[in-house]
Every structure is written in C-alpha cells, then in structure tokens.
UniProtKB/TrEMBL annotation:
Entry-annotated residues carrying N6-(pyridoxal phosphate)lysine: K188
Entry keywords, A to Z: Aminotransferase, Pyridoxal phosphate, Transferase
Protein family per UniProt: Belongs to the DegT/DnrJ/EryC1 family.
Protein name, per record: UDP-4-amino-4, 6-dideoxy-N-acetyl-beta-L-altrosamine transaminase
Enzyme class: transferase
C-alpha cells in the first residue's frame, strides 16, 4: 500500500536522537530551547513554545486566552476534530464557519455575515480557529482585519502548513494573528514522533503559554507573588498541565527542521506533477491562490462518486484518505445541537474530496502508479 503520507528519517535524525539518549537530560535540557529557536528563526517570530502535540498546542492557545464556559469559539467547519475540541477542553462553546468548496478554507463572506449577525449578543466569539487546509494558507489579511474589527482573537491552526507562506511571509510569523499552532505528527511537514508548538509575537501570551505548558508553575522572579525565599522556590499560579516536549523529540525536530526547505520543495514539485498528470482526468485539484504558497501537506482532488473511487483505489493498493468530514457532522458535535446542513460549502467540499499520496520520498514511479490507478477507476 502506498500511504497518503509518511515521515522521512535519515541517519542524521537517528544520530541526533541517540546523542540525547546518551546525554544527561532526556527532557528539560537544552534541546527544546534550541528547537524553539530554530522554529522562531524559520518562522520569523519572537516567541515559540514547543509542546507535546498539536492538540495540546491548540489547548494551550485557548488556555492562554483565558477561554472559559460561556465564551464562544468559532472554527473552520472542515478540519481535524482537535481544532474544535481545544475550546471544549476549556468549557467554551463552539460554533462553526463554512468553507469555500474549491479550497476547503474558511469563507470570508460567511465569517463577515455571522460576525455582523451576532454583534452585541452574548454569542459574539472570543476567538476564531482558522485552519490552513492541506497546507494552503487561508485568507489571513481579510480574516485578521475582521477579527481586529470585532475584537476576536485569531488562532491559526497551521498543523498542515509549516513551510507555507502568505504574501511572502512565513506561516507562523503571526503577521495577522495572535498565535499559530503546529503539529509534528509523522504525516505532518516535519516530525518529532508526537509534538507541537505555538508561535506568537506577544510576550504576554508567550509567558501564559509557558505557564500552562508546565503545571501553571513559574520560577521567573518577575512573575512571582513574593520575593523568592530560596533557590528551591516556585509558584503554581494557574491550573496548568504537563504538555512538555522531551529533548529526545526536540533533537529529532531540530534535525528535521534543517531539511524542511527541501521537504517543501519536494512536495511542491510532486504536486505540480500531479496537477499536470491529472489535467486530462475528471479530478479537480484544490484551487490555489496566487498570493500564497502551499506547503502541500495534502494533495486533495475533487471527484464525482467519491466513495466508489475511494474503495476502488484502496483495493488497488493506493492509500487514499479523506480530509475531512465536516466537524459539525461528527456525532459528538451533533449531540451538542450542531446541524451539518448549515454548512453547504463544507458539505460540497466533503462529498467530493479525496487525498492522494503525497510525501517527500514518494517516487515518480509510485506517483505514476497512483495516477494510472485513478485513471482506470475514473474512466472505467
Ligand atoms: C494533526 C492536526 C491536529 C492535531 O495535531 P496532533 O499533533 O495530532 O495532536 C490539529 N489540527 C489539524 C488541522 C491537524 O491536521
């Protein structure tokens, strides 16, 4: 089976991990801050807080905004469920914003309309989680401007989009948002096994993110309620978590980060080759916007009769996948009263979407095999 995504691990990656295993610190040594600095340099952002996975990164972002019960958080209707669950962990209420069927990204017109509709009501959102689906940045300038106008905090869910750029600025720079969240799961742009990070330009949010990452505990003299009576002294100031990344994982991340430009280049070249090979087939790639560069975490095409195409490609040994069923269609969210029919863009996207295999080490022969299988399924 050719998988839809997979990691690329070299001997250098392995040596970096082994070196940590032979060192004094497996966690809370120097590798995590070094990885954070590498990400900060790459993303051109002052603050990076690495953590245990993308889901905990999203939860930290919500906690840092002091989200609580009665607060509303809006989320792109097409994403992985973690984009919405993070708000529920804080007890906040979730609502969804429809997407554009040609990109799967948040629809600015739907966002504007809903913001106008709830203005002044208790349903006014405190935060918006905007997803960069498949690695293509959403309309950050327009979304950021609307969020500022209505006093909404903007969290970018960039779990697909490390290495992507928007109007020349790297995703993660937070040029239009309060915080950006990454995942380092093995199928994502770089991996630490499990891992995640939050980036921000705000020193205050960075301090809150660090506090929540490690039990709500601080030793920073400037943050303490009293003068420390001794070197052992720390204070727990909020109900935080243990969401730390280990040095073992951070060493792998730093090693992977060095190859990120190469990974993105390989993904973009393979995507361009798919675009070309698919022009004569009834399979429509996601629309790409001119002013941004996708990191191509996923290569999604839209096909008629998707369920049959999916089943027959799987049978042919092609590990296709579907990203994603609309979150409001999940039984948990239906149980909270959500109705997927309220998101026609998301439904149209989902009905036809299928992700073809795409990862840096996918060979041209494997890619040809995928295209041949797709052709025989679509043109049978
Ligand atoms: C992978 C992913 C997450 C969660 O990341 P984990 O590291 O698996 O916890 C959240 N949002 C999106 C869009 C993702 O793709």
């Amino acid at each position: 089976m050719i998988p839809y995504g997979r990691q690329s691990i070299t001997d250098e990656d392995i040596e970096a991990v082994v070196a940590v295993l032979k060192s004094d610190y497996l966690t809370q040594g120097e590798k995590v801050p070094a990885f954070e600095q590498g990400l900060a340099d790459y993303c051109q952002v002052p603050h990076v807080i690495a953590c245990s996975n993308g889901t905990t990164a999203l939860h930290l972002a919500c906690a840092a905004l002091d989200l609580e019960a009665d607060d509303w958080v809006w989320v792109s209707a097409i994403s992985f469920v973690a984009s919405a669950n993070c708000a529920r962990y804080c007890g906040a209420q979730v609502d969804f914003i429809d997407v554009e069927p040609e990109t799967g990204n948040l629809c600015v017109a739907a966002l504007r309309e809903k913001l106008q509709r709830v203005q002044g009501s208790p349903r006014q959102p405190k935060a918006l989680v905007a997803v960069h689906l498949a690695g293509q940045p959403c309309d950050l300038a327009e979304i950021g401007a609307l969020c500022r106008q209505y006093g909404v905090h903007l969290i970018e869910d960039a779990c697909h989009a490390l290495g992507a750029s928007y109007q020349g600025q790297p995703i993660g720079s937070c040029a239009h948002s309060d915080m950006t969240v990454f995942s380092f799961h093995p199928v994502k742009p770089i991996t630490t096994g499990e891992g995640g990070a939050v980036t921000t330009r705000s020193a205050a949010l960075a301090a809150r993110l660090r506090l929540y990452r490690s039990h709500g505990i601080t030793r920073e003299p400037a943050q303490l309620n009293v003068d420390a009576p001794g070197g052992w002294y720390y204070e727990q100031q909020v109900l935080g978590f243990n969401y730390r990344l280990t040095d073992i994982q951070a060493a792998l991340g730093a090693s992977q980060l060095r190859r990120l430009p190469q990974f993105i280049e390989q993904r973009q070249q393979l995507a361009a080759r798919y675009d070309e090979l698919l022009t004569r087939l009834p399979a429509q790639p996601l629309r790409q916007m001119d002013d941004r560069r996708s990191g191509y975490h996923l290569y999604v095409v839209q096909v008629a009769d998707r369920d049959r195409v999916f089943a027959q490609l799987r049978e042919a040994g092609i590990g296709v996948n579907v990203h994603y069923m609309p979150i409001p269609a999940q039984p948990y969210y239906r149980g909270l009263g959500h109705d997927p029919a309220a998101y026609p863009g998301a439904q149209a996207y989902y009905r036809q979407a299928i992700s073809l295999p795409l990862y840096p080490t996918l060979s041209l022969a494997e890619q040809d095999q995928v295209v041949r299988a797709l052709e025989s399924v679509l043109c049978a």
